[in-house]
Design a protein that fits this description.
CATH architecture of the largest domain: 3-Layer(aba) Sandwich
CATH superfamily of the largest domain: NAD(P)-binding Rossmann-like Domain
Shape: globular
Strand content: 5-15%
Number of helices: 8
Distance between the termini: 31 Å
Number of strands: 7
Radius of gyration: 18 Å
Helix content: 40-55%
Largest sheet: 7 strands, parallel
């Protein structure tokens, strides 16, 4: 299906691996020009060289307050427009709430929330000019709290609320803003969780991979490409009536309304 994205320009943060890389590969296949953002030049260059579309690599630490301003300016200088912003960057620390420090909380919000918020603010005028789209990659912890995911849950909840806030503004200004909550997706981060679970339970990693989805009451882990395809749909005119939509892609793990 032609999603009518060819020639449009997308900024993708956290693009070097995992979900971000899959999003980049999916959008490249749709003919979009890409601004690939992460902190690892080696991985970004490798990704850019593997894609057939025009890519602009930006090695940026979005925790820095001025990073978003410089990134948006660089994207406009290179391509002259921004049609899509995908806020995907940011991992948050798991752990015992009583043991998490102020610095760890501040770091959790610095990249995933404040980095995304600043990018939305700086890109907004350009997205308004193009009647563009923002897609925030949040996470299930923003909807369903769990004891070991205090920072991540709080950050994701803030991103989901920001999505609704900007969607409300976007109705009048022609910018569509939506969010995706990925479930347990087969990335390096999940592999770390599997290893830790295996060690805690005294079982093999293969057995841990079998038991963890059962404990979540889902059939399997998700694949990064499944998130990439959802991003492409939400970015396209096919999703023109999606505004403030929060899409759970989790194999049924979220059972609340």
């Amino acid at each position: 299906m032609d999603l009518h994205l060819s020639g449009n320009v997308a900024i993708i943060t956290g693009a070097s691996r995992g979900i971000g890389r899959a999003i980049a590969e999916t959008l490249a296949a749709e003919g979009m020009k890409l601004v690939l953002v992460a902190r690892s030049r080696t991985l970004l260059d490798e990704l850019a060289n593997s894609l057939t579309t025009e890519c602009f690599v930006q090695v940026v630490d979005l925790r820095e307050p001025e990073a978003a301003t410089h990134l948006v300016a660089a994207a406009i200088e290179r391509f002259g427009q921004i049609d899509l912003l995908v806020n995907n960057a940011g991992a948050t620390l798991r752990g015992d709430f009583l043991a998490l420090t102020d610095a760890q909380w501040a770091d959790g919000f610095a990249l995933k929330f404040f980095g995304a918020m600043r990018l939305c603010r700086n890109a907004w005028p350009h997205l308004r000019d193009r009647q563009g789209v923002i897609i925030n990659i949040a996470g299930l912890g923003g909807r369903t709290g769990s004891a070991e995911f205090a920072i991540g849950g709080a950050v994701n909840a803030a991103i989901l609320n920001l999505t609704k806030v900007l969607a409300d503004r976007g109705v009048a200004e022609g910018v569509r803003v939506n969010a995706i909550n990925p479930g347990s997706i087969a990335t390096e981060r999940l592999k770390t969780r599997i290893r830790n679970y295996a060690a805690e339970q005294g079982i093999s990693e293969s057995e841990a991979s079998r038991r963890m989805p059962q404990a979540m009451r889902v059939a399997r882990f998700g694949e990064p490409e499944e998130i990439g395809r959802a991003v492409a749909f939400l970015a396209s005119p096919m999703a023109a009536y999606c505004q403030g939509t929060i899409l759970d892609i989790d194999g049924g793990q979220t059972r609340t309304l």
